[in-house]
Amino acid sequence: MQAQYLAGVLSAFAVSYVGIGASFCLQNLIERDAPKLTFGLHSVALGVCAIAVAVYRASETDTYWIWTVATGAELLAVALMLHFALLFSRSAAVRRVAPVVYAVTAVLEAANLWRGLARPAGAARDGGPGWVLAHGAVRVTPLGCLAWMLASVAFLATAALLARTVRRGRREAVGPLVGSLVATAIWCHDTLVVLGAVDGHWLGPLASAVLVVSVADAYLFRHARLSRDLQRDYVQLRDAQRELRRKEHLTSIGELAAVVAHEIRNPLAIISNSVAGLRRRHLPDDEKETLMRILGEESTRLNALISNLLTYARPVVPKPQQASIRELLRRTMLSTSSKGPLEFEITVDTEAELVSVDPSLLRHVLDNLVDNAGHAMSWRGTVQIAVRAAKKRNLRGVSISVRDRGDGMNAEVCARAKNPFFTTRPTGTGLGLAIVDRIIEAHGGELTIQSAVGLGTTAAVFIPDADADAVGADKKSVRVLP
To answer: Please, are residues 396 and 467 in contact by the beta-carbon 8 Å criterion?
Structure first.
């Protein structure tokens, strides 16, 4: 009963060893971390050893081959433990020492297979040092005693390497150091048992339990610290990006002064000439009507320019509330109906129809994107608008794409499309997409533009939902052809 109970305990340890080892080996596939891989293999080897000892303890007959497997796994685990300590401590001698360690281990493994470390129970009658396992005595040969002493040296070297790592200021090595000291003490006890110096039971599979747990905890604490440092660095980076954007905005405002001087001077010159013409006597009615029309157009142009400049210079502070994308699109279509026979093909996901955003700012975005699409097609043709539920950077929201079939843009023009004051239209201010980009950025979203000459342009915005839980769960789509 006691043997079966001990076998059950060893089986539990074996499952833990294999689980921890497999986890570290899988992490190595992602991080390419040699110490983690070595430690993972060490834990798997301990698991194999614990399984073999559990089977040996629960066996009703002497199965010496199981004892051979346990010894072989334990020898490999000791070699991997020392290799891990060399890697973990960043020792410069790892390239020289590790091959020697594995060479000695290979020799001992060969001797183990040929019964050079211990002999079956029947051979114990010859006398000599040995200890009693489950069902009889296993005699340890002089080479086996040497192997156990070498393993003790490996444990002591592991503790020394970890102690030096702690002295160098690496706090994450404190736990493994304590675990290695406990494991060393247990292993030295087993060595004395093997040499016949003391009576007792073999605690080999349990000796490394504290070391395995302590190393695993050290990596967990290390990851927790790195996660905390990464979060702190992320906050600092975010603040730096905000400051950089603020300075870039101030720089843009500096450019604004030069652009304002250029953009306003031309309409004012035209207005001045028109006023001078209107002052002439005996001016024909048709010329007077033309000059009055020019005054109106240039006044409208100036008003639009000033409005865009004020919008661009004003800080964007969204005030989210529940808004219907479909209703905002309907208003945009009504506002553009007088500009030309433009048609719309709109697809809206039901779950994306309601979203928590600033309605007035989103309406401004839609007006600008549709206006650009209309100009690209000379206000003739069909604009395709698709509204989909989307997720980016773990943020749920909506994606709105506006596609036209205009002339499109080349790569250079497309790359500069969001730059303030850049425009390809003679009467444009170059602030439409810049304002859209600022609004989307203020919402925490993203504006992307894809275009090809002769194929048209697709402008897509992603806007996070300020209240994602309010979005419906139905994913059916409806198509509207106004």
So the answer is: no
Instruction: State the DSSP code for 453.
Output: T
CA dist 449 and 426 (Å) reads: 21
Outline where 59-173 has alpha helix (H): 64-88, 94-113, 142-167
Name the pairing type of β-strands 118-119 and 137-140. Answer: antiparallel
- Can you tell me the distance from the alpha carbon of 108 to that of 143, in angstroms, rounded to the nearest whole number? 8
CA 172 centroid distance within chain? 24
Helix 432-442 / helix 285-313 crossing angle, nearest 10 deg: 30
Q: Are 341 and 374 in contact (CB under 8 A)?
A: no
pLDDT (tens digit per residue) in 344-371: 999 998 888 888 999 999 998 999 999 9
d(CA 402, CA 432): 15
DSSP H or E segment with residue 192 = helix 174-194
Please give the Cα distance from 239 to 241 (Å, whole number).
5
Of 345, 347, 357, nearest in space to 397 by CA: 357
Which helix (H) or strand (E) segment holds residue 387: the answer is strand 381-392
The DSSP secondary structure of 122-142, one letter per residue, reads GGGGG-SSEEE-SSSEEEEPH
SS3 271: helix
CA-to-CA dists, residue 114 to 216, 220, 221, 237, angstroms: 35, 41, 44, 62
Provide the β-strand partners of residue 354: 324
Higher-confidence residue: 202 or 440? 440
Closest CA relative to residue 84, chosen from 134, 44, 130: 44
**The Cα angle at residue 390 between residues 386 and 394, in degrees rounded to 5:** 160
Least confidently predicted of 21-35, 89-103, 114-128, 289-303 = 114-128
Q: Which two tokens stand for residue 377?
A: 């097609």
The single-letter DSSP state of residue 473 is S
Model confidence pLDDT, tens digit, residues 156-189: 898 899 899 888 888 778 888 888 888 888 777 7
**CB of 149 within 8 A of CB of 108?**
no
233/243 Cα distance (integer angstroms): 15
- What burial letters (b/e) apply to 237-272, b meaning 16+ CB within 10 Å? eeeeeeeeeeeeeeebeeebeebeeebeeebeebbe
For 314, how many CA atoms within 13 A lie in the half-sphere containing its CB? Answer: 11
Torsion angles phi and psi, residue 270, rounded to 5: -65, -40
Beta strand pairing call for 342-349 and 381-392: parallel
